[in-house]
Amino acid sequence: MRLRLPVLLALALLLPLITPAQPASAERNVSVEEDISVMTARARDQLISLGDDIHIWNGNVMARASQALDYVASLRPDGSWADVDYADRTNSANGATWKPSIALSRMNAIAQAYRTPNHPGADDPALLDALNRSLVYWERADPGGRNWWDTEVGESMVMGRVSLLTGDRLAPDALDLAFKHNTGIADPIGANGSWRTQNYLFEALSRQDPATISTGLRTMAKALAVNHTGSSTEAVQVDGSFWAHGAQLYSEGYGMILFNSVAIWADLARETSFAFTRAELDAVADYILGGTRWMVRREFGLLYLGYRPARTVQGVSTGAAEFIVPLQAMIRTDALNAAAYQRMLDNIMGTAASNGTEGNKYFWRSEFSGHARPGYSIYTRLNSARTVAGEYRSTLRPEIGNEIEWNSAGATAIQVDGDEYTGLFPVFDWYQYPGVTNPYQLKTTAGVSANAGTFVGGVSDGRYGATTLQLDKGQTKGTKSYFTFDDEMVALGADISSSATGPVYTTLNQAVARGTTSVDGAAVPHGTDRGARDGATWAYNDKTGYVMPDGGALRVSSKARTGSWIGHEPVSRNVFTLYVDHGVKPGNAGYAYIVLPGASEARTRAYARQPAVRVLRNDADVQAVTHAGLGRTMAVFTKPGTLDLGNGRTLSADRPSLVMLDGPGSNPKVTASVPDVPGATLTVTLTLTRSGKSRYAVFELGSGAELGKPVTQELTDTPDLPDRRLTAGTAVTAPALAGDGDPATSWRSDRQDFQWLRYELPRGSLLTGVRLTWGRRAATRYVVQSSLDGVTWKDHEFVTNGTGAQVNTPVAGEPARFARVLMLSGRGGYDVAEMSATSVVNLAQGRPAGADGSTGDRTPAMAVDGSMSTRWQGLNTDSTWLRVDLGARKTLRTVRLSWESAFARQYALQVSDDGTTWTDVYRTPASGSDGGPDVLPVQATGRHLRVQTLQRDSTQYGPSLWEIEAFAEERVPGPPAPSRENLALNRPVTVDSSYADAVRAALVNDGNATTRWASQREDPPITPRWVQVDLGRTRPVSQVKLLWEAATATDYTVKISADGVQWTEFARVRKPQTRLTDTIGRSPLEARYVRVEGVPATRYGLSIWELEVYSGYDLSCEPTTLETGRPGTVNAHLTPWTATGQVRVEALGLSVSGPAVVGADGRIEIPVTAGPPGSAALLLTHTGGPEYALCYVDVSGPST
C-alpha cells in the first residue's frame, strides 16, 4: 500500500508538559536578584556615560541633560511642551526631524539628569513629576509617524531608558505607560533587531524579571549569528561582513550599531549568571576581529562615509570612532581576545600604527578587499549587479552632486597613517574617488546607479590577492583589476569606452597634499590645477609613490580647495589629485599603474627604473601580473583563454575566472574563484611547453553563500572529476552504480535501517518525476523527497509497505536541486539498482544578470535567484532593461515572466549572441500584458536574453520582476499544488477598499505570492482596513496565514463568522512592523467567513500577498546537528496545540533520552542522544490528525 500520509506508530513516547528552567547563579554563591541589581546599576551608569547630548534620531542633538531643569520649567500643566508639534508626521529618514521626537528626547534628558550624580536635578521630585505628566500627555496625544523606526524603535528606546533610569521612582500609572509605549521584542535580526532587543531588555531590567533578561541577552548574542543560507540580507555573512537593506555591505553604519549593542550588553552581563557564553563571545570576536577589523586602519577604508561628518568620541573624530566604546567593553568582557581588541582600539585612537591585521582578505559576499601590512593598508570596494552599490542618506546638493554615486566602482583607499582622507571629506571631489574610472560629470539625483557588470570578484590566498570589476555604469564600460603584493598594488584597466559627455578619468588617488609632491622628481607647485604630465613614469605625495610603467596622459593637482558638509561652515584643505585622462568618449582605452604605499620618494624613483612586478597582459580578455621575487602570478580571465607565463609555461582557464599561482615551477598551488556562476566547475591547466606535459586543478566551486569564494588546491595529473550526481549516507558499494544504466549493478548501504540516496539535478530544475529500481534488498518504508538546498526537504510520497521492483513517483514541477529516497525500514540494509529523476530546467536561474539600473536594494540577480520572495525593480521610467547571460548559445522555446504589481504593460523579449546587437523574439500585443505571470512561447537561439520594457502599467514605480525563467521545452509545469488544502484559495473575497486594479481584492488569495491586494491609503492612517474571505460553507478553522507586503499592521484582529454578520475573535496579533509572515494557530473553530482587520502601520494602507486558511494541523521540525554520543535537543512545532493532544516519536538512528519540554504555543523540545556518525531522524505523528514530520539529525564524529 502506498500512502501520502503515515499511520500512527505503535512504538511511541508521550510528551509531558515541562516548564523551561530559570537562569541560576549556582556555584558563584550570588543570588539572581543580586546579579540583576549589578546589571541595573551598570546599565544606568552606561546610559549616563553617553554624555550630555541626546541624539537618538539621525545623530541629531534633540535635547541635553544639562538643560533638563529648563525642560521641566517649560512643561505645561497637561504634560506637553508648547513648542512641540505632537501631530507632526514627518518621516525622519535621511535626516529630517519628526517633531514628537523632541518631546521624547527631553523625557530622556530629564530621566538621565534625575539619575546623574551631582546634576542640579539629581533626585529632584520635580523631575519625576515632569516625567509623570509628560508620559500621561504622550499617551493622550498618541503621536504617530510615517517612518516605522520613529515609533517602533526610537519611541521604545526612550520609554525603555526612562523606565530603567527612573522606573523605581515613577508613579505606577506613568511607569505602566512607559511599558505600554515600549514595543521592544527579542529580535535577533540585524541592527534594528538589536535595537528592539535592547528596548526589550530595558523593560526586563526595570521589571527585574530573570526569565526575560535571559531571553533578551541570548537573543542579543544571536544577532551576530552567521547566516549560511546565502539569502539573508540582514545578517552577518559567511565571509565576516555584514549586510543590511538588501545585499549591501554595511559593516560600518548598521554593522557598527549592531556591534555596539551586543558589546554593551555583553559588558553589562559580565561576571553574572547571565553572562555571555564562550561561544557567544567567540561570535563577537569572529565578526569584529575576523571581519570588520580588515576594513579599518585608524579610519574606515570605505571612503564614501565622509559625505556626512563623523561623531567625536573620546577626542577622536573619525568614522571608526564609534568603535571605541564597544571595543573598551569587549576588552573588559572577553579576556581571551582582549589583546586583539586592544590593538584595534589603539589604532583607532591613533596610538598604534597597525590594528594587528597582516595579510589579504577578500569578502566575497560583499565584494570588498582588505590588504594589510604593518606599514599600510589598501581597501578596494567593488559592486556587481548582485549587490547594492550603496544608499543615499543625506540631502542632495546639486552643486556638489551625488556624493556616493561612484563609491563602490573600485574605490581604493590607500592608508599609511590612516588619516589620508579624514580631514579631506568636507572638500572631497566625489567624482574622483581613488581607483575609479568614471566620466567626470555630476549626477544630481539621489540614489545610486547600479553597475550592470556581473563579472566582479576576487581571489585571495590569505597573503596576496586580486580583484576585478566589469564596469558597466554611467554610460561607461571597461575591465578593471587590482593586484596586491607585499610592497605594491598593481592596477590595470582595459577596453574602456564611454558614451557620456564628460571626460573619462581614472583616478590614482585624491588625498591630503602634504610633504613632498612631485612628478618624475620635479616638484609640483602648490596651486597646480589639472597640470598635464604626459608620459611621466612616476609621482609622489605623502609617503606614497605611484609608478606608470607605460606612461600615459597623467594629470596632477595640488591646491587648496574649499567646501563644507551640509549645515557646516566652509573649510579649506590642501588636496593632491593624480589621474589619467582618457578623454571624451574614449574607445578601447586602458591604463596601468603601481602604487607603493609607505615608500620614500627615492624608493619610488628606483622602483620606476626597475619594477619588481611585470604586466603579462592587459587587454579585454586577460589581465595578469607576475612578481618574480615572490613567485606569485595572478591572472583575470574575462573569457576562456591561455596566458603565456614565459620560461616555457602557459596558464589556461576554461571559463571566466580569477586565478593565482603560488610558485614559479611546475607544481605551484592554485587559488581560483568564479564570482558570477553558482556551482561552477573550473579547470585550470599549467602546461610546460617544452615537454608538452600539463597539470590540472579542477575546482568545484560554491553557490549560495559560497558563490565567489576563493578555493585553493594542488595540481594533479588528470582533469577528470568523479561522478557525484548520486551520493548516499553510507556505501558498501558506490552510489554511482545506481546511475550507471546497468540494472545488474547497484548501490548497497550498510545494515542500518535509516539510509538515504540522493540524486543531484541541474540548477534551475523543476522536478517532474523520480524513478527507482530496487535491487535484492528493497525498503519496506521510504519517502521520496526533493530539496532546493539539501537541508530542507519536501515529501512527495510516503510508502509504508514497499515491495521493490521499479517505482515511479510523479512530481508536479517542484523547484528542486536534489531528489532523495529516504529509507526508514527494510530487511537489513538496502540495494538500489537505478535511481533517476526527470526535470524541466530553467536556463536563466543563477546566471549572471545585469540591468541599466535598479531601485533600492532590488538587484538584477534577484530576478534569477529562483526565489519568488525577492525581485528586481528597474528604473522609474518606461524604458528600462534586464538581461541574462545564459553562458552559451541556447535554444529557447518558453520564457516565463513573473511580474510584481508594478509591471510593464508593453515590452519586448530580445536575444543576442554578443550582448550588444539585439533581436526581438516577442513583443506584447496592442492590449499589452495584464501583469502575468506571462508564459511566452518563443522560437529563438542566443546566449543573452533581455527584457526591454516599453511602457509601465503605472508611472509610480519602475517595472519589477520576481523571476525571469527561460526553457528549452515548449511545455513548462506551473507552480506545484500546496501540500495542505488552503480553504481560502480562490474563494470570494470582500474588502473595505482597493487602491488600484493591479492590487485588487481577488489577488489576495489567488495562490500566487507575487500578486497582492492593497487597500486605500490615508495620511495619517486612522481608518481600520479589512479583507474577508468566504470559505463557501462552514469549515473547522485552526490556522490563518498572512504574507504581508511592507504595508502591514502592527496590531490587528483575525475574526471568524458563520453568517458574515456576527463576528468572533479568532486571534489578536501584535507584531513588529518588519515581521511580514504571520501564522496564527489555535484550537479549531467552525466558520464560513474569515476576516483580517486593523489600522495600517503606515500611510500606504494594508497590503497582503496571500491570505491562507487551514483546517487540521501543521507539524514541522528544525534540522539538528549533534555530536555522536552526546545529548542534544530536537525542536519541533505543532500548530494548533491543545492540552489534550499527544505527540508520538519514533527514533531512527538515535535514542530519546528523557522527558520533553512542550510549550503552550506548541513548541516541542525532544531530548535525544546521538548514535554513530551519519544521519538520523525522529518520525513524529500526533493523535489529532494524520500529519507527520521527519526531524533530521546530522550526527558528527567526536570533537578532538
Question: What are its keywords?
Answer:
1200 residues, mainly beta, Immunoglobulin-like, Glycosyltransferase, Beta-galactosidase, Chain A, domain 5, 6 domains, 9-stranded antiparallel sheet, 8-stranded antiparallel sheet, 13 helices, 65 strands, globular, disordered N terminus, Chondroitin_lyas, lyase, carbon-oxygen lyase activity, acting on polysaccharides
Distance between the termini: 47 Å
The level-1 CATH class of the largest domain? Mainly Beta
Based on the coordinates given, report the CATH architecture of the largest domain.
Answer: Distorted Sandwich
CATH fold-type name of the largest domain:
Beta-galactosidase, Chain A, domain 5
Helix content percent band: 10-25%
Model description:
There is one protein chain. By secondary structure, the chain is mainly β. It contains 13 helices and 65 strands. The protein folds into 6 domains: 2-16 and 1115-1196, Immunoglobulin-like (Sandwich), CATH 2.60.40.1080; 50-183, Alpha/alpha barrel (Glycosyltransferase), CATH 1.50.10.100; 359-387 and 401-642, Distorted Sandwich (Beta-galactosidase, Chain A, domain 5); 726-841, Galactose-binding domain-like (Jelly Rolls); 849-967, Galactose-binding domain-like (Jelly Rolls, Sandwich); 989-1110, Jelly Rolls (Sandwich). Strands 13-14-15-16-25-22-21-18-19 form a 9-stranded antiparallel β-sheet. Strands 1, 36, 37, 38, 39, 40, 41 and 42 form an 8-stranded antiparallel β-sheet that branches. Strands 43, 44, 45, 46, 47, 48 and 49 form a 7-stranded antiparallel β-sheet that branches. α5 packs parallel to α7, α7 (190-207) runs antiparallel to α8 (210-222) and α11 (324-333) runs antiparallel to α12.
